[in-house]
Amino acid sequence: MARGCVGLLILVALVVTTSVSAGDSKKEFVGSDKCMVCHSEQHRSWKTTFHSKIVQPRKGGILRDSVAKWATDGRNPGPTTANVTGKAVKLDDVQYVIGSQWKQRYLVKNSETGGFELLNKQFNRLSGGWENYGNKNDWNTNCATCHTTGYRVLDVDRVTGKTLKDEWSEMGVGCEACHGPGAAHLAAKGKDRKKTIFNPANVSIQAQSKVCGYCHIRLENEQYRTAQGNPREDLPAPGIGGSYKAGEDWAIWYPEHVTIPGVQPDRPFTAEYKGDLKGMFMIDEFAKANNIFEEAKHHQEYQGFLQSQHYKSGKMSCVTCHSPHAGKGKPKKIAAASCITCHDTSYTVSKYMPNTGKTADNLFVRTHTFGKNPRKGARGAADMGPPNYYE
C-alpha cells in the first residue's frame, strides 16, 4: 500500500475486530520445550536470560514491588485504566507482563478487538514508582513480532492496512526466534539435520549481527498498521501468513513503506524524524565532533552498533560479546567482562558503553557505538539489583 494512499484511506470509518491465537497454523515452529530434548544445556541456560522472560504470565512474572505498590507508590497512583478502550482495570485483570530488568508493563485483554492492550502506567524499577505510559495500540499488532516467536500476520484490512488477525507459536524470545523454525530440523535425519536449522557460526560476522538487529532496532512501518490504524513499530514478514526466519535479510523488505534510520542509505542517523522516531539519536555538538550518534532511545542497539569500528572492521558481531545461551561445554558469555578479552583493564563497559538510551524516567540503556571519546552516561541496569518476582 502506497504511503500517500494510506493517509487518505484511514479516514474511512470502519469498525474492525482483530483476533490473536497461540499456535502455528503452518506447523513450522515447534516451541523451545521441544528443543530442550536434545539441547538441554542450552535450554537451561536460555531460561535464565531476559529473552525467555520478556513476556511472562502475571503469575510468576510480575514484580514483587509492583504488586506491593499497585494502588500507589506513595507519590503516584498505580495503573487504573486500559490505554485503548479506557476501561477501568485492576490487578486481577492483568494476563501478561512485559519486561522486568528496567521496567515492567502490563497487558489485559481488549474486549473490543480480541487482542491485548497496555495499561496507563509502567513500573520503573530504579525509582520504585509508577510513571505514565500512553501507547494506545493493541500490543500484538505493534510489538509482538519481537516479543513472541513465530509471529505471523494472518489478515489485514485491505482499505486501512489494519492488522485484523495474527498468531505466534510461543510467547517470548524462544530458541526458534534466533535459529529459525524447528519442524524440519526435528524431522531430518543424520548429517542433513544440521542443514535444517540456522546456526550463526555458519554465516558472516555482519550477518550474525543482522539476526539480532531484526529486533534490537527502532523503525516505523506503514506496510502494516496496528488494530487502531497507526504505523506499526515492528517488522512483520512481507507476505500475509509469512514469518521471519533467522538469517533472512529483513532490511530489504518493502523499503518504500518502512523507515529504518541508519540502516537504509537514504535515512541517515543525523536526519530529523517525526513521531516515535523523533530524537532517536544524539546529534548534539559532542556527537558531531566524534561523528558518532549515540542511541537516545532504547531497543535500537543495532543502529548504534552499525556506527562502531567493531562492526565496520568485520571482526566482531553481537555474539562476540553476548550469548543468548551457553554452548555445549561452554559457559554463557558475560557481556560486561568482554572488553578485557581484547583490551587492557582500562576498557570497561561503564566507560565505553555509557547509558544514553532512555527507557524510563531517569533510567537508560547502554550505547553500542563504542566511541573513542565516550560521553558520561546516566543510570542504568547496573545501578539496580536483579528483579524480584512476586510468585
Which ranges are low-confidence, i.e. pLDDT below 50, for 5 or more consecutive residues? 1-16
By secondary-structure content and strand pairing, the structural class works out as: alpha+beta
Question: Major beta sheet, specifics?
Answer: 6 strands, antiparallel
- Report helical residue fraction: 10-25%
Strand segment count: 16
- The gyration radius over C-alpha positions equals 21 Å
- What string gives the helices and strands in order? HEHHEHHEEEEEHEEEEHHHEEEHHHHHEE
Overall pLDDT level: 93
| Percent of residues in β-strands | 15-25%
Structure description:
The structure is a single chain. The protein has a domain at 263-383. Strands 2, 3, 4, 5, 6 and 7 form a six-stranded antiparallel β-sheet that branches. It has a three-stranded mixed β-sheet with strand order 1-10-9, with no helix packed on it. The N and C termini lie far apart (46 Å). With 391 residues, it is α+β, with helices and mostly antiparallel strands. A hairpin with a 5-residue loop joins β12 (220-225) and β13 (231-232). It is built from 14 helices and 16 strands. The chain has helices at residues 3-9, 32-36, 40-46, 58-61, 64-68, 144-147, 175-179, 183-187, 205-213, 285-290, 301-305, 309-312, 318-321, 349-352, and strands at 19-22, 55-57, 96-98, 103-109, 116-118, 121-124, 129-132, 148-149, 152-156, 163-168, 170-171, 220-225, 231-232, 258-259, 355-360, 363-366. The radius of gyration is 21 Å and the shape is globular.
